[in-house]
Design a protein that fits this description.
With 446 residues, the chain is α/β, with parallel strands linked by helices. The chain has two domains: 186 residues, Rossmann fold (3-Layer(aba) Sandwich), CATH 3.40.50; 163 residues, Rossmann fold. The chain has 17 helices and twelve strands. A seven-stranded mixed beta sheet has the order 9-8-7-6-10-11-12, sandwiched between helices. It has a five-stranded mixed beta sheet with strand order 1-2-4-3-5. The longest helix is centred in the last third of the chain and has 25 residues. The chain is globular, with a radius of gyration of 21 Å. The structure holds glutamic acid. The site of glutamic acid (GLU) has 10 residues, from strand 3 and helix 15.
Length: 446
């Protein structure tokens, strides 16, 4: 790594002890930036990188709530408002027991560059809580969300900070959060949250957007090698919102999706995954993936534990969570005939895994480019809210497709310009960084 960057990285490690996911996200970006600093000494002179690594604001708060048995429960809430050079802070909320400041900062840091890449006027932020929605009743989830918003409301707003969903936060949670915001502020401020229900200010295509966009990006990458998704054998990890719609879009493009997973195990369905059954079980019934195998019968195998990456595939779409593909898994995937990987989740590949893919000449799309369709469609939801309009599915999907092609081309051209043709990691990091750094310089010492 460039020695100037190495020195800044040391400072980041020392200032943010123990936040290993944040360190990993910073390292991944820094490894790409050497050539930019040579070309743009003004970024070095103005200490833009040191500023970028320090969030503009970090909020940590107590979330007390009462469970159904009448016991008082305490969780910790977070909102990291990382960078507002391009627009209001924008990024999701994650409710998962693993959430702590290091996770929120890694996600917020990634979000800055991802949001810049979309070309939409949105800054970067992220939040969440160590609350685990799994196994909780609807009423418990509602009380938790109401308590969470009772603190968060004072920090957000359509021109300030616009949260959305992430792991553990879907339409149900956004509904409860929006309702509480409206009660407290006495304002019907639609643009304060995205991922709302379509009947009350949400956008069509927002639920599909992250998974759809990831597959659209994959298609663009494959095109550069004169091929397409048609006839590819695809494995997807996860079975939540991103995974489900990635499967659906890959199938639309003629691929055969044979496997997906949840945190307990994975299924292999050689006939191709039945998306409506998967959605019925995971979304409507909030059940486990094992149930899919039970209902489909002998043609589907369910493997308890283990890794979905043992299933051979030409295209892999990691759509579960961070660091789910390590060096060993990546090596096995390459041996099994892998052609392309696109990250539907945030940072699902370790840096070792990325190195394995790149050395093997696999097409590799990092999450901040591949999964940017979700937040881009959130920005489209904000546009609709601001103009009090509601667009059709076709129009919104066409906008998304256009945005994904734009992100792909921006990454590819930037990688080429900076001497790493075909390297989407370099392309995404540099294109995102330059856009934010230019804005920060123009806005003075911020
Ligand atoms: N959580 C999503 C992401 O990782 C979406 C954020 C949003 O729509 O604001 O990009």
């Amino acid at each position: 790594m460039d020695t100037r960057l190495e020195a800044i990285r040391e400072q980041v490690l020392a200032r943010n002890p123990g936040e290993k996911e944040f360190h990993q996200a910073v390292l991944e970006v820094f490894e790409s930036l050497g050539p930019v600093l040579d070309k743009h000494p003004e970024f070095v002179d103005a200490n833009v990188l040191q500023r970028l690594c320090e969030p503009e604001r970090q909020i940590i708060f107590r979330v007390p709530w009462m469970d159904d048995a009448g016991n008082v429960q305490i969780n910790r809430g977070f909102r990291v408002e990382f960078n507002s050079a391009l627009g209001p802070y924008k990024g999701g909320l994650r409710f998962h027991p693993s959430v702590y400041l290091g996770i929120v900062k890694f996600l917020g840091f990634e979000q800055i560059f991802k949001n810049a890449l979309t070309g939409m006027p949105i800054g970067g932020g992220k939040g969440g809580s160590d609350f685990d929605p799994r196994g909780k009743s609807d009423r418990e989830v509602m009380r938790f969300c109401q308590s969470f918003m009772t603190e968060l409301y004072r920090h957000i707003g359509e021109y300030t900070d616009v949260p959305a969903g992430d792991i553990g936060v879907g339409g149900r949670e956004i509904g409860y959060l929006f309702g509480q915001y409206k009660r407290i502020t006495n304002r019907y401020e639609s643009g304060v949250l995205t991922g709302k229900g379509v009947g009350w200010g949400g956008s069509l295509v927002r639920p599909e957007a992250t998974g759809f966009g990831t597959v659209m990006f994959t298609q663009e990458m494959l095109k550069t090698r004169g091929t397409s998704l048609d006839g590819q054998r695809v494995v997807v990890s996860g079975s939540g919102n991103v995974a489900t719609f990635a499967i659906a879009k890959a199938q639309q493009f003629g691929a055969k999706v044979v496997a997906c997973s949840d945190s307990s195990g994975y299924i292999v369905d050689e006939n191709g995954i039945d998306v409506s059954l998967l959605r019925q079980i995971k979304e409507k019934e909030r059940g486990r993936l094992k149930e899919y195998a039970v209902r489909r019968g002998a043609s589907v195998s369910y493997v308890e534990g283990g890794s979905v990456w043992d299933v051979n595939a030409s295209v892999a779409l990691p759509c579960a969570t961070q660091n789910e593909i390590n060096t060993e898994a990546a090596t096995g995937m390459v041996k099994n005939g892998l052609v392309a990987v696109a990250e539907g989740a945030n940072m699902p590949s370790t840096s070792g895994a990325i190195a394995v893919f790149q050395e093997a000449g696999i097409l590799f799309a990092p999450g901040k480019a591949a999964n940017a369709g979700g937040v881009a469609t959130s920005a489209l939801e904000m546009q609709q809210n601001a103009s009090r309009d509601a667009w059709t599915f076709e129009h919104t999907e066409a906008r998304l497709a256009n945005i994904m092609v734009g992100i792909h081309n921006r990454c590819a051209e930037t990688a080429e310009t900076y001497g790493s043709p075909g390297n989407y990691v370099v392309g995404a990091n540099i294109a995102g960084f330059v856009k934010v750094a230019d804005a920060m310089l123009a806005q003075g010492l911020i």
